[in-house]
């Protein structure tokens, strides 16, 4: 697809051109990773996410509906994803609420006030590169009352290994892929969505 000129999206010393299929890049507006379409200044090697290039100077967000957010350029922390903002971000001056432009476009399930643990879990899954399913901790005996331990009926000998349940493995794989896709969608990482299925 051929590049097209951009009309008055953001202030930059050279004209920006909309370009598809550039691969991975770091957005010079919000300083987060992007993939594919960019608004580019080839003279400066300057790239912007499509949304960062066209985001309005103020907006109302479902994440902070009681005040208008103002777009500014500074270094703060995003109250949605907890990552540092090194460039463009929206801010509510009365509350000190800060958010990346792309984070304002996330689905309403992620909320800065209640779902931080879920965002952190997804971030940890992505960083580990593997899914670790949380389950019950199995000990040799259960504690009934303080100081009193009930012994189990049967103890497996070392070396005995149960054959994994195929249904449980499929469920684990689906949960892992779901977590990777959710995280990739939250961060605007198109490549992450695609790689979750590879």
TrEMBL record:
Transmembrane segments: none annotated. The keyword Repeat applies. It comes from the Eukaryota. Residues 132-168 are annotated as: Disordered. Residues 12-53, 64-103 form the DC1 domain. It holds the Pfam family C1_2. This is DC1 domain-containing protein. It comes from Brassica oleracea.
